[in-house]
Write a structure and sequence with these properties.
This protein has about 190 residues and is α/β, with parallel strands linked by helices. About 50% of the residues lie in helices and about 15% in strands.
């Protein structure tokens, strides 16, 4: 059984070490101690703390560009109706960014929330809302930390032109790299 220091434990929960010490003083959590008196925490302690918090149910909606505002609104309405139909009280997170990247700030925050055990359900219109590539990685992380990803896969929410936009973005990125390489050929080192 892996034991965590107070710094590792607090980081895992998304709080500062002083908060963990306060929980100990109030009796909310009782850490194990080393022979030297240092606190050590286990996965059971993580479950104990997270069990006290209600886990979040999140809808994540993403479009590739600002011009797709109507698509975003439709996506949000459809996902909120889906969640309501399942009796889920959710929060909705929206983000604009191409599907080729997994480095969107709100998406990364969601992944951190999943790892911290804060998110129980993540609802998306399509798998590619999380990322055109890499859904399986996010899904495996979610499964490992007890989060269910629900991909509604409604055909009316999957604009074909968005895939074309992402393809053009990829070609543009590669062409810029090629241009950068040709500039380097002209420079003497």
């Amino acid at each position: 059984m892996q034991k965590m220091t107070i710094k590792e434990f607090s980081s895992r929960l998304g709080v500062i070490p002083d908060t963990v010490r306060r929980w100990e003083r109030s009796g909310r959590i009782l850490p194990n101690r080393t022979q030297g008196g240092h606190r050590r925490y286990t996965e059971e302690h993580v479950r104990q703390v997270l069990g006290a918090r209600e886990k979040r149910k999140v809808i994540y909606c993403r479009v590739s560009s600002e011009e797709q505002e109507v698509d975003m609104e439709n996506q949000v309405v459809a996902m909120e109706l889906f969640a309501l139909g399942r009796g889920l009280t959710t929060e909705t997170i929206t983000e604009v960014g191409d599907g080729m990247s997994l480095a969107h700030p709100k998406l990364l925050s969601l992944v951190h929330g999943i790892i911290a055990g804060e998110i129980e359900v993540l609802i998306v219109a399509h798998k590619d809302r999380l990322g055109r590539f890499g859904f399986e990685l996010i899904e495996n992380i979610a499964n490992a930390y007890g989060c269910e990803i629900i991909s509604v896969d409604s055909p009316r929410l999957s604009p074909r032109h968005e895939i074309i936009d992402d393809f053009i973005s990829a070609i543009d990125a590669f062409s810029q790299r090629i241009e950068g390489l040709s500039v380097l050929k002209e420079v003497d080192f």
